Amino acid sequence: MKGKKPLIGLVAGFALALVSLVITSSAFAAGAEKVLYSFCASSNCADGGQSWASLIFDSAGNLYGTTAVGGSAECGGMGCGTIFELSPGADGKWTEKVLYKFCSTGNCADGANPYAGLIFDPVGNLYGTTGAGGLSACGGGCGTVFELIPRDDGTWSEKVLYKFCSTEACADGANPYAGLIFDSAGNLFGTTYSGGTSCQGCGTVFELTPGEDGKWTEKVLHRFTLGSTTYDGVSPGYGSLIFDKAGNLYGTTYLGGRCVEAPGCGTVFQLTRHAKDQWTEKVLYRFQANGTDGRNPYYGLVFDAAGNLYGTTFLGGRSSSCNQGCGTVFQLTSSTEGRWAEKVLYSFNGKDGIGAVDNLILDSKGNMYGNTNAGGTYSRGTVFRLSPVAGGKWKELLYSFKPDGDGDFPGGGLIFDSAGNLYGTTYAGGAHNGGMVYKFIP
């Protein structure tokens, strides 16, 4: 199964190579961090472990998320992942409750290994994806889209809305590692990392439409290809799609494009809806391996109020501290002719982080917040803030994750609460080295 294990190995190599550089550097904290919950606190990680997902709040202030492993004892003994809720107490402590443990059915037909976060519908049901499970193809299942429905007694029931690789050669897609979004009509949109028939599966963009009988129908809006005729993207990453005001979709691919290094440095793409519900893909930008540009965006995009796009890349940039660069933050600006120009706003250098792998979030003052998966003072990742300053430059403030109970390797994006505090997850670290949920107070 394709997934984040290759990323973990790559990050570990970067971190080891940078130990002598960053361990003696001085970090300046931009705020205070508090661990809300450390996973693997129960036997065999029944409470979950290794969260790569962004969190969401409900109206009562509870947090919801996923863990990629833990829960049941299936999936090689590591567990197949969970959906969890964290509830704040009057004493400031947070209580975790596992709402669902995956692979609770034969052959993991209910899904396994959720890497992405969740979304609510208007009545309080949760929706998400699993990277594996479902049908028995792909050597462990090709992934699912699921719904989690609350019962009156406080428990939740899971319903699989779609199992991927249900058509010949996985033409419908396989391995949905990214999260979902709704349109105004209640349809779901997402991406798959592989499947779609081309290049042994370059990935897809799909739509799921609910029927009156409660069943959902999948439609592939675009199948990515790898070839010199289109220089299309390959393998949409782990970030959700976004809509613009006109209903067009935007996202990134980790690979593909017109890059001298096979199989490509990644792209930013747009999907435009036409008559009869047909969609056309346009590559807005192809990243380059030129020593200054970013490359290989793992996560998605965000708009500002002026319609500019912002994102991060896992590799590339101007720093020579990392092999192939330490990653970047970039901006895409549209012209009146419909062309998009890219500008690298910031290149990480190892001391301030390596490998930005999550979605950015913007505050009302134009500051951008995010995580790097490794690097920083202790080579365990950072929380960063980029602030615009005079001359079109950006100033960075950061927090470096520490050893001894703090988190290691943040992977999910950040979210704000109403007071401006940030919340996120880490893949490892914490009191039991199973990852954690943290609060960051700028």
Brief rundown of the structure:
The chain is mostly beta strands and 442 residues long.
Topology:
Layout: H1 5-22, E1 32-38, E2 56-57, E3 63-67, E4 82-88, E5 94-101, E6 119-120, E7 126-130, E8 144-150, E9 156-163, E10 181-182, E11 188-192, E12 204-210, E13 216-223, E14 233-236, E15 242-243, E16 249-256, E17 267-273, E18 279-286, E19 294-295, E20 302-303, E21 309-313, E22 315-316, E23 328-334, E24 340-347, E25 354-356, E26 361-362, E27 368-374, E28 382-389, E29 393-400, E30 407-410, E31 415-416, E32 422-429, E33 436-441
Antiparallel strand pairs: 1-33, 2-3, 3-4, 4-5, 6-7, 7-8, 8-9, 10-11, 11-12, 12-13, 14-16, 15-16, 16-17, 17-18, 19-22, 20-21, 21-23, 23-24, 25-27, 26-27, 27-28, 28-29, 30-32, 31-32, 32-33
Keywords summarizing the entry:
4% helix; five-stranded antiparallel beta sheet; mainly beta; single chain; disordered N terminus; Neuraminidase
Written description of the protein model:
Strands 1, 30, 31, 32 and 33 form a 5-stranded antiparallel β-sheet that branches. Strands 14, 15, 16, 17 and 18 form a 5-stranded antiparallel β-sheet that branches. The model is unreliable at 1-29 (pLDDT under 50). This protein has 442 residues and is mainly beta. It has one helix at 5-22, and strands spanning 32-38, 56-57, 63-67, 82-88, 94-101, 119-120, 126-130, 144-150, 156-163, 181-182, 188-192, 204-210, 216-223, 233-236, 242-243, 249-256, 267-273, 279-286, 294-295, 302-303, 309-313, 315-316, 328-334, 340-347, 354-356, 361-362, 368-374, 382-389, 393-400, 407-410, 415-416, 422-429, 436-441. The chain starts with a helix and ends with a strand. A hairpin with a 5-residue loop joins strand 15 (242-243) and strand 16. The protein has one domain (5-441): 6 Propeller (Neuraminidase). The chain contains 1 helix and 33 strands. It is globular, with a radius of gyration of 20 Å. The longest helix has 18 residues, at 5-22.
